[in-house]
Structures are given as C-alpha cells and as structure tokens.
Design a protein that fits this description.
Structural class: alpha+beta
Distance between the termini: 82 Å
Number of strands: 13
Order of helices and strands: EEEHEEEEHEEHEEEEHHHHHHHHHHHHH
Largest sheet: 4 strands, antiparallel
Number of helices: 16
Strand order of the largest sheet: 1-10-8-9
Strand content: 5-15%
Helix content: 25-40%
C-alpha cells in the first residue's frame, strides 16, 4: 500500500470459487451479492458492499442494468473478511481503481457521468468503466478516501480531512497540512506467531479494557470445561479454574464480577433495560471503591446490590418501589432500608448530585398497563395524583404506591365499573399491580372520595357520575 494524493491504497485479490460447474473469479462486492442471491456461490469474496441500484431500460440501453451511484461509498464490511483485514471501514469512499493485469494502465478515477439531464433530476452514476472493471473480476488495486467530517482545516477551512493509516497522520486533502500525527489505530489487532501464513488467525494482543474492573485487562483466566465432575480431576481445566478463583487473580475484581452477575440477574427479572443495568453496575463499582477507602454502607451484599438497582432506576426516571425490589433480592426489608439510606448519602457525597425523588404519578402508566386499563384511565389517574399532591391533607403519610393504586381505582370506578378485562375484581387487580394490600388501597380511596369533586378532572366524568361513585 502506497499513499498517493492524500489517500491510501488497499489491494484486494479475488479468490477462485467453483459453482455449478463454472469457475468464477470475482472482485466486485455487489456482483458477489447478486451471485449469492441466485445461489451460484456460497461465501463472499471481499466482504464489502457499496451503494448501487438497478436502473431501468432506456433507448440507449434496452436492458435493465446495475449501476454504482456517485460518490461510491462503502456501506458494509464483513467481519474478518479480506477488506476487514486490510483496514477498510464503512463510510470509506472509493476514489480510484487500477487493474493488476500486465496490460493494464494507471488508475481510473471514480467520477460521475458528465451527460446528466438535470431537468429529470437524475441521480449521478459512476462511469461504466469502473463498474465493468469491478464486476469483471481479477486482481486490482483500489484507492480509498477516509474523511473526517466533524473537523475543518485551520489553514484553508476545508472539511476534507483524511487519515493516512500507513503514516498515522490526519491531513487536509486540499492544502496538505498535517493536523495530527502518530494516531492510535482503533482497529482490531490481529496477530499470530504460528509457523504458517494464516492471516485470518483471530488472536488478539490482550483482552479488551473493561472500565467496570480494576485490572488492566492483561490477567490470565483459565477456562473451565469438562462438566461438574471434572473439577475434582487434578490438572484438568475445571480444577485449575477452581484453584485460580480461590487463590489467584485480584480478589476485588472477583467481588465486582459476582456483584455484576447478581445485578444483571435482578435487572432481568425486573424487566429493566441494559442502560439501567449498566448504571447500577457503575454505582456498585463506586460503592466498592469507597468501601476500600474506609466508608461503611452495610454488611449484606444483596442489600447493596438492591440499593444500586433502586437508585439507578430513579436516575433513569423509571422508578421501582421497595416491594418490587424485595421480590428479586434475598435480604430483609430492614437491612435494605438501612443500607439504602447509607448508599444514597454516599452517592450524593461522591457525585455531588441529588438523587431524583419520584411520586405516585411516575408509577401510574406502568400500573395501568398491568391491569390493561385504557389510556384515558391512565391520564385521569395522573391528574388525580397531581391534585392530591396539591391538597396535602388528603393522603398525608401514605406510600406513593398506595396513592397511585387509589387514584387508579377511582378512575376505573368512574369508567369501567368494578371488574377488569380479565374478570378479576378491580381492587384485587390494582393490589396485585401495585403491591399494596386491598385494605390499604380502599383506606386511601376513602380519603380521596371525600375530595372527589376537586380531584376528578371535569373532562373525565360529569357531576352526576362523580356523585354516584361508591365510597368503597
């Protein structure tokens, strides 16, 4: 590969494939895809795809044909393919092609056709000679351009900033000013020390960096295998893995990995997404780091896991109640409450940010979904909760889940009666969804019933309907 004209070249040679008794030597990525769709070949060649489309027949060309659109952008690179090994990336632009046959000349630039009819809003297509060269097959050399679109040249103002991977420079293609040098390549570091010439050996020079662990990613881990009984066989992989876990490695990393495993399991059982799981793991790592400095947050590790998940849900605006957290953790409610207070105080001291406080309105949509209530019921229940927060004497000292359950119960009584779509009694269904007892929901509802004319929205029910609403 020789840098030329601010870009760099990558040489890809097609392989011979035999299909249906015919021998084909292909180079074009899209031609390879079309042949694969027709069942002629079984595996890709270069492993790249480019932007192209099927053009309808015209007077000059009576048959439909396939054409590349301009600019010729690479839209896909197959993992561990020939192009991936050579460093081709998605978004690279093909700027020139040269056939490696003995009779071939120099590079043919990838340019659009000149005779475009601008009145018909025709798309710019690459000249046919480029298409014919790529689809004919055979060894060829391509020159690609990699643009850095978010940066402009300080000298000429151009946004045509390209990376020359061979030199590790970030250069302006127009004026040639070098903006950065000695760039670190973020591509995969495929290396092999075997005697053969296998270039596709997927061996990395070290494991990936994990920000959730304290190590630098260079530890050696013995893979266990052979089943449960193999751990008793001296010298087996499972036995060595067992010994390494007990004596070797960093003990703090083992504690973190165990905690991440439990947090991931808890988030999965609570139907929480990966963003909340990652936030909880980051909080747990911060807690463990502070514990090494002498801070005390509690002795029960499961209470710490639950506290991290609880706070992560609040930070991501998808709060869960204490009772919901208790369903997925094996610790007492007393230990969880004590640990949660210590963890909240610690997080606020380290981050300097207050943990968001949620109210019953944040729980309405999820609880209504559990009982299959309509959108109007959910909307009315939210407005009822907002007015309850304004009238502080209505539900003073009540848990937010109980207030949300009472608001949903009131909204359902005005529109959907005593039952639910599943046939289950309404109060029992609301109790199951919120985790509050039926007696508690009815008790809070009686307080809301006294102020029902102030709480129920005017658009939701008439005065006669509100008066006829039962008080139990």
């Amino acid at each position: 590969a020789e840098p030329e004209g601010g870009g760099h070249e990558q040489r890809c040679e097609g392989r011979k494939l035999r299909a249906e008794g015919q021998e084909r030597r292909l180079v074009g990525p899209k031609q390879c895809e079309m042949e694969r769709d027709r069942g002629l070949i079984r595996k890709p060649l270069w492993g790249i795809s480019a932007n192209m489309e099927q053009v309808e027949a015209t007077k000059e060309h009576p048959k439909p044909r396939t054409r590349f659109t301009y600019p010729l952008n690479i839209t896909g690179v197959k993992y561990q393919s020939e192009a991936d090994v050579l460093g081709v990336r998605v978004g690279d632009v093909l700027v020139a092609v040269r056939s490696d046959s003995p009779k071939a000349g120099g590079f043919i630039e990838v340019v659009p056709e000149e005779n475009l009819d601008m009145k018909t809003n025709s798309k710019p297509y690459v000249i046919d000679s480029i298409r014919d060269l790529l689809m004919r097959g055979g060894a060829c050399t391509v020159k690609i351009k990699r643009e850095w679109r978010n940066q402009r040249c300080e000298e000429c103002g151009s946004d045509r900033i390209i990376e020359i991977s061979e030199l590790g420079d970030l250069t302006c293609e127009d004026c040639g000013v070098v903006h950065r040098s000695r760039l670190i390549s973020m591509a995969s570091e495929w290396r092999t020390f075997a005697d053969d010439d296998n270039k596709n050996d997927p061996n990395r020079t070290g494991g990936p960096d994990n920000p959730l662990l304290n190590g630098d990613g260079m530890q050696t881990t013995i893979q266990a295998g052979g089943g449960r009984m193999a751990s008793d066989v001296l010298g087996s992989g499972a036995n060595l893995n067992k010994s390494q876990y007990r004596t070797g490695g960093q003990s703090n990393d083992r504690i973190l990995q165990d905690g991440y495993s439990h947090i991931g399991s808890m988030c999965e059982r609570l139907d929480l997404n990966s963003a909340i799981s990652m936030e909880a793991k980051e909080l747990y790592k911060m807690i463990e780091d502070e514990k090494l400095k002498g801070k005390k947050v509690g002795k029960d590790p499961f209470a710490i896991y639950a506290s991290a998940v609880f706070i992560a849900c609040r930070m991501k605006n998808v709060p869960r109640t204490i009772k919901e957290i208790m369903t997925v953790v094996s610790c007492t409610k007393h230990d969880l409450g004590k640990t949660l207070k210590a963890v909240q105080k610690l997080v606020q001291e380290v981050t300097g940010k207050a943990i968001p406080v949620f109210d019953a309105g944040d729980l309405i949509a999820r609880f209504c979904s559990h009982i299959q209530a309509s959108h109007l019921v959910s909307k009315a229940a939210k407005e009822i909760v907002e007015k309850v927060n304004e009238i502080t004497t209505v539900a003073q000292g009540r848990v937010q889940a109980s207030i949300a359950g009472a608001a949903i119960y009131m909204a359902c009584l005005l529109r959907e009666g005593e039952g639910t779509k599943s046939g289950e009694p309404l109060c029992r269904a609301v109790s199951t969804a919120t985790g509050a007892a039926e007696a508690t929901i009815r008790d809070v509802f009686k307080g809301l019933h006294l102020e029902r004319h102030k709480l129920v929205p005017e658009w939701y029910a008439t005065k006669e309907q509100i008066d006829a609403m039962p008080d139990h």
